[in-house]
Amino acid sequence: MQSAFAIVSGVVPQRSPKEVLRNVKLTLTDGVATLLGTDEEVGIRYELSGVTTDSVGEALLPTQRLSAILREVQDDTIQIEVNEEALWIRTAQSEFRLSVEDPAQFPTVAKFEDDNYFVIPGKAFRQGIQRTLFATDTESTRYALGGILLEMAPETATLAATDGRRLAVIKMNCSVHGTMENELGQPVVPAKAMALIERSIQDDDQEVHLAVHQHHVLVRSGLSTIYARLVEGRFPRYQDVIPDQCETTIEFVVGPFLSAVRQAMIVTNEESRGVDFAFGDGTLTLTSVGQDVGSSRIELPVSFEGTPFVITFDPRFVQEFLRVLEPAGPVTLQLVDGDSAAVFKAEENYTYVVMPLARD
Questions:
Q1: Separation of first and last alpha carbons in the chain
Q2: Within 10 Å of residue 282's Cβ, how many Cβ atoms?
C-alpha cells in the first residue's frame, strides 16, 4: 500500500483551484482495489494486489495526511473503512478518523484499452528517462522544452530533451504490438509525467506499453496506467545542434571525472558559475573562482596530446550528466574548439551536448 500510494501521490498537486484533486481516489470493484491520482494534465491508475475486501464502492483519501500515516505506522496490514461521515484508518496499535469528500466530484483517469502500441523493455525505458529528464526546462515559456520528445519507429525509440543550453538524446530498442498506420508527429510528454513513468517501472524485466494519440499518451507499466496530455508547441530540431565532426576526442572514467567536477563546483556561485576546463599534455586542469568565496584548482590525468586549449562550462550541466552514468563506465568528450558545442558520449546510444560559456 505504501509503495503504491507513494507513486500515485506523486501526481497530486499541492495547490489547486479544485480541492478535490488534492486527494487520491480509491475504488473497489470485484475484489480489485484501484488508486487514482490526477492534476488533469497527468493521471495514474494503480491496481493494488493483496487487498482483502467484501465491499464495492469508492472513497477519496486525503493525500498529505494519509502519506504521513503510512510513513509512521509499522504494521504490515492497514484497514480502511469509509462511511458517509468519516474515513477510518486502523492498524494494530493506531486509529485515525479523517473527514470525507464526495468521490463523485473526482475526474476519471483513462484506462489502457489500445490494441496498437509500442513495447519497450522496462529497464531501457527507465534508464532513458533518467538520462534525459534532467535536461528539460520546466520553467521555460517555450512549452515544448518542458517535456521529453518521443520519436517512435517500429524498431527504435528515441528520447530527447533540451533547455536550450544542453541536449540529451538516447536511443533504445522497441517493437510494435498490432499495427502503426497513423502519422505520430513529434509527441512531447511533460517532464512530470515522465518522472511518474520512471517511478512506476519497478521491475527491469517488465515491458512498458506506450500508446500515442493526437493529444495524449497512455503508458502501461506493471500495475499502473499513466495518462499524460502532450505538451503544446514544436520541439526544436535537435539534430542540427550536434556537431558533424570534431577535432579532439578525450576519454574519461566517469567516477574520477565526476569527482573532479564536483570539487570544482565548491567555490562557484550564481555570479561566477563557470569552470575552466584546460587541456594540456596528459592533464585536465579545472579552475574556478567565486567572488567572495575563493578559488579552486583540480588536476585529472587524461589521454590528451596536442595544442593546449581551454573551454568553459557550467559545471552543473556536466555533473548532472555524469551522475546518471555508472561510476566505473567510460565516457568520451568530443570537442571542436573552445567556443563550439561539446559532445559527451556514453555507450553508442547516448549523446549529450553542452554549449560552453563565454569566457571573460
A1: 55
A2: 10
Q: How many CB atoms lie within 10 A of CB 309?
A: 15
Span 122-144, pLDDT tens digits: 999 999 999 999 999 988 767 78
Helices (H) and strands (E) in the chain, counts: 6, 24
| Rg of the chain (C-alpha set) | 24
- Please tell me the distance from the alpha carbon of residue 99 to that of residue 190, in angstroms, as a whole number: 33
Instruction: Check the CA dihedral 91-94-97-103 and report its sign.
Output: negative
Of 45, 356, 38, which is closest to residue 224 (Cα–Cα)? Answer: 45
3-state class percentages of the chain: helix first, strand second, coil last, to nearest 5: 20, 40, 40
**pLDDT by residue (tens digit) across 298-341?**
999 998 888 888 999 999 999 999 999 999 999 999 998 888 99
Grid cell locating 95: 486509529
CB 82 within 8 A of CB 97: no
Reference 118, options 180, 186, 172, 185; nearest CA is 180
Torsions phi, psi for 43 (to 5 deg) = -145, 160
Q: What is the CATH T-level fold of the domain 117-238, as seen in this structure?
A: DNA Polymerase III; Chain A, domain 2 (3.10.150)
CB atoms within 10 A of CB 307: 9
Q: In CATH, what class is 242-354?
A: alpha beta
Residues of the chain with CATH 3.10.150.10: 2-105, 117-238, 242-354
CA-to-CA distance for 120 and 341, rounded, in angstroms?
31
Residue 35's pLDDT is what? 93
C-alpha 182 chain-centroid distance = 27
d(CA 263, CA 290): 13
What cell numbers appear for 259 in the block?
Answer: 569527482
Predicted confidence (pLDDT) per residue in 142-154, tens digit: 778 999 999 999 8
Closest to 78 (Cα-Cα) out of 63, 65, 96, 62? 96
CATH 3.40.50.970 fits 2-105, yes or no: no
Report whether 194 contacts 242 (CB < 8 A). Answer: no
Distance (Å) of CA 225 to CA 40, 196, 211, 311: 15, 10, 11, 45
